[in-house]
Amino acid sequence: MSDFSFAMLPGIEQEEMLWLQELTKSYSSENKQRFLALYSTRRKDPQIILICSLVGLVAVAGVQRFLLNQILMGILYFMTVGFCFVGTILDAINYRKLAWEYNKKEAISSAALLGL
């Protein structure tokens, strides 16, 4: 398995790919495949986070926070209409950072779950 496999993840950016290569550099080919299979199911595409943030401007606010397993923030966004749209706009601007922080945690969690 080559490191090119990480490039096939939807919406992956250079920073995330380099971080994943560094995380998995000591893994065997089989372990990398197992890691990639688990991580790809748990990872969030940054564009989905952006779309959900934009949905919060016209419909239900806080969906992006629920997707990122930030349940309390999601409820708070829902009850305050996305902090009167300010929080929703900030999330739409920072969607890559939100997705990257979530995906980083999920990568570490996936590696720990596999015992790597």
From TrEMBL:
List all membrane-crossing ranges.
48-68, 74-95
The entry's cellular-component GO terms read: membrane
- Top-level taxon in the UniProt lineage: Bacteria
Q: Which organism is it from?
A: Chitinophaga flava
Which ranges carry the TM2 domain?
57-93
Subcellular compartments: Membrane
Keyword field: Membrane, Transmembrane, Transmembrane helix
Q: What is its main location?
A: membrane
The name this protein carries in UniProt is: TM2 domain-containing protein
How does the UniProt record describe the way this protein sits in the membrane? Answer: Multi-pass membrane protein
